[in-house]
Amino acid sequence: MTASPVEHSHVPHFSRRRRLAENRYIRDRWRDFLSVDHRGMMTIEGVPVDRIVKKYSTPVYVMVESKIRRNFRRFKKVFGDKIKLQYAVKCNSNLQILRMAREEGFELDCSSVGEIILGLLADFKPRQLSYTNLYKTEQDLHFAVKMGVQSITADSIEDLWHIAETAKKLRTQVRTVIRVNPMIEIRNYSTKGNKYGIPLKQVMEAVEIAAKSPFVDFRGFHFMGGYIYSPWTLRSSARVLVNIIRECQDRKIPIKTLSLGGGFPAAIGDQSEFPVEDLTSFPKYFQRLLDRSGVTIPIQLIFEPGKSIVLHAGVGLMHVVANKEIHHRNRMIIADGSTYNFIPDALVQSEVRYDILPASKMFSPRVHKVTVGGNTCDCWDLITKGIEMPKLEAGDILAGMDVGAYAQVLANNFNTIKRAPVVLIHENGTLKQIRRRDRYSEMFAPELDVLKMADPNELEYYNNLYRVNIDKIWKGQGKKNGAAKGK
User: Fold this and answer.
1) Which of 134, 240, 426, 442 would bridge with 155, disulfide CB 3.0–4.6 Å?
2) Which residues contact 483 (CB under 8 A, 6 or more apart)?
């Protein structure tokens, strides 16, 4: 069937407008899943965002499965089979994402017993889970040892003694690694102020404690560098740690593993992204270090990416609820998300300017600068400042970009507001809810359980009243009013 002249002229016009909108608002890192439809509505994997918010309301997180899997595979491609990869659960601990990590051949780096339990629920084997943090109770250690995790990291000499004493009580050996602060300083990067790890001058003291304890199965070392922007930083830390490994070898203390942690920054706003592909040669570089230092024992190298896997895969959808013109150079847009309940990293990293896109007005040009404020009663609740946006009004949809890491795990119930649901969108456009919105019964339970101040039936009454479908009430009321007028 031949298209009409109107259709012929419309298609090129729409294509030009879409390209203009995409170039204006969509960064390269989102182009594999974001686009714009004929109305100027943002689409995620081809699904218009207004369809998503109609089904799940706002605020709502949308996690893009294809982006997450591509990032897992990106690291596997860079490092191959020579380096063990562990996903840092702390960045986003959703069970569905942990299952994806397992399917893509990753192990898990867990920072708490809670994260270990999540890993087990996601069908990881205990030996695929490492346990790394700064403090563990005896109960924590008992649980991790009884489960049989891969290793437990000692972050300080006190922590190492604690592990050794608890292992003695349990009458079992505990697979232990020592976290090291290599005390390096390169240009603007330094570990000298880090809270992580045992300072370099005390490391061999810790090694002797571990080696002499009959209940510590000393496995190796760990380094947590935080935000590392250059491969040269990792090379410098590796040189320091290989020297320590050589000293251990000289003392007849066998070393099996070395984790160089994560800390591969992923871009927010105009930030730079860590060049992961520049690490392709790192395994060979590390082996050369071992050879030059005379280390003859095989060392399993480990990396722990997290933020760089999930950050760019997260989109936070919100509605505009108000547009306030404070004065001609100061316009405030109020959204139904916040820096407490929805995008908390914006509060923690106040110097970072998040990309907030006019998801329902992608054809509209930027005309003025605005501050996007959250919906809580707190003056610090400003999602981003000084971004250029089109004219917005209540009901418009905003998209907070790059919110796939830390946002969901840092979000809280400030102002007694429910945290948002999370939806996973597949590459074919199908949607799957992977976390529902909070319930008041869950939010209040820690107090109701101990204070016994409220009748459970009273809470159920309030909850049921709140869950009433308002649209149905209004529709029914409209029919009654219309019928009355007809009489």
Assistant:
1) 134
2) none
